[in-house]
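Materials and Methods. Structural model of DUF3533 domain-containing protein. The 438-residue sequence of DUF3533 domain-containing protein from Streptomyces chartreusis was retrieved and submitted for structure prediction as follows.
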Amino acid sequence: MTSKGSGKQPSLARAVVVARHGKIWLVPTILSALVALCLTLLYMGGILNPNGNLRHLPIALVNSDQGPPLPGQQQTLGTQVSRSVAAATPPDAVQWRRLSQAQMQDQLASGKIYGALVIPSDFTTSVAALTTSQATTRPALTVLTNPGLGSLGSSLASQITQRAAHQASLTIGKQLAAHASEQGTSTTTQSLLGDPVTVTTKVGHPIGGHSGLGLSGFYFTLLLVLTGFVGGNIINNGVDAGLGYTDNEIGPWHTRRPTVPISRTQTLLLKMLMTAGISVLTTSLIMVAAIGILGMDASHLPLLWIFSYCASLAVGLGVQAINAAFGGIGQVVSMFVFIALALPSSGATIPLHAVPGFYRFLALFEPMRQLSDGVRAILYFDARADAGLTRGWVMIAIGSALALLFGFAMTLYYDHRGLRRLTARPAPPASTGTPESS
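The predicted structure was written out as tokens:
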């Protein structure tokens, strides 16, 4: 007597037999292993040692000290602090930009510097007052942050600046304490002179409270890229199924449409037109959800929408071009182009000044960096062209043009060579919507 489950045994046995053949394992195993290895190296390689990889992080150094110099010295203490700060940081790690107050504010507002150290105009005078018997407080240096460039970048700049300022304070304190000891000043005064400067931290260029500590720009850009990437692949698969070039399976239900005789070039044109149309909806929904429902801080909304639409469309066009050129493996190729290589080289979470040189090279052309600079310029820096918006527009135009040229060049070549995708064949019997009918 045959049990109810015995009827499935032949199918199971056949699967086991097929699984014993090494060839069926070869390609999936190799591709999966390469993807896992490459993703790990790419993602982890860019984040593990930001301090060790730090190169030329731009920080402003504003010396407003007007003196006069202390007795026996030819320079103000502000000048000495400036030199001490630069000497206290590792060579090539920081690019100290000696700016005026107005220049510093302009570069903070355009996202060109990650922070600033400000020496006040009365710095030497306030330090000199410590040598008097009425000295009770210490003069201050001000560290300014720029959270619009990301919480980690701003934090790195703040830590570096605070350490350098404290070291400069100790250096000046040794000189003052020695001089005060010779003059026989009080113990309280000598204690103040040992570390004469206090360091205060303030926000140099404020952003909204609903900005994710400067990360909303990155995550909004990530949404645009993912929508373009995933949406492009959905459109690619949907059109192929609709034209009868692939099967359409949802769970156990299977359908196969009649194959439509259409060239590769015409198919790519159809997919790109659908990408352009559907991106209008997806971009609008992203903004409605992020800004309207979740309350993300955003201004210049019309500009943000058109930039977001063009950014997502450029990614979608690139996905269609790559899929048309590489076929089934195109989804893996586009995943590396738009996700795997783009995320660690975006500079949106870890500054490009704190990643290995390979990622700084990728950032020259990978889309995530270009798009995130444009989005941050709109969200945090009043849509200033020099804050990254111009570069974002230029790279969107270049990326879209390359996608069109590459995609249509490949499909025209394939069509010219007569490399058709499938030979047209009639549709199978109509599906009843059951697993058995497929």
